[in-house]
């Protein structure tokens, strides 16, 4: 697990590329916000989390499988991850920030990511 990165992952880089191409400007990993969002759009008060399907338990996704070995350990770890995510989203909402989650499996479709970002920012699709 020491090789699992929390920043600059491939899904995160794909979302950044789409956001930048759409003309959206953002900050990365703002530690002063709950949960340290992957991308932050300060102008729109929007925090974006790019979650891995496996680690953050994307409901209904085939990538959110349970390892066969040490299932109790993994179940506990995944429950803590999900609880931490839920707490971060709640704290952001309490601070008047909007937040969205873009799942790893969604990042393969650049058009879908673009639509999600533009809809969340309230921007026109002509950007």
From TrEMBL:
This is Very short patch repair endonuclease. Belongs to the Vsr family. It comes from the Bacteria. The keyword DNA repair applies. One of its GO terms (molecular function) is endonuclease activity. The keyword Nucleotidyltransferase does not apply. InterPro entries: DNA_mismatch_endonuc_vsr, Restrct_endonuc-II-like. Pfam families: Vsr (PF03852). Keywords: DNA damage, DNA repair, Endonuclease, Hydrolase, Nuclease. Gene3D superfamilies: VSR Endonuclease (3.40.960.10). It comes from Sphingomonas molluscorum.
């Amino acid at each position: 697990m020491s090789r699992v990165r929390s920043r600059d992952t491939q899904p995160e880089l794909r979302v950044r590329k789409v956001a930048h191409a759409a003309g959206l400007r953002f900050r990365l990993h703002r530690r002063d916000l709950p949960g340290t969002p992957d991308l932050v759009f300060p102008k729109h008060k929007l925090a974006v989390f790019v979650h891995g399907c496996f680690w953050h338990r994307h409901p209904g996704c085939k990538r959110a499988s349970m390892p066969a070995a040490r299932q109790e350990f993994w179940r506990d770890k995944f429950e803590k991850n999900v609880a931490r995510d839920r707490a971060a989203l709640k704290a952001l909402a309490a601070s008047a920030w909007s937040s969205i989650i873009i799942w790893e499996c969604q990042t393969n479709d650049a058009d879908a990511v673009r639509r999600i970002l533009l809809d969340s920012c309230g921007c026109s699709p002509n950007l």
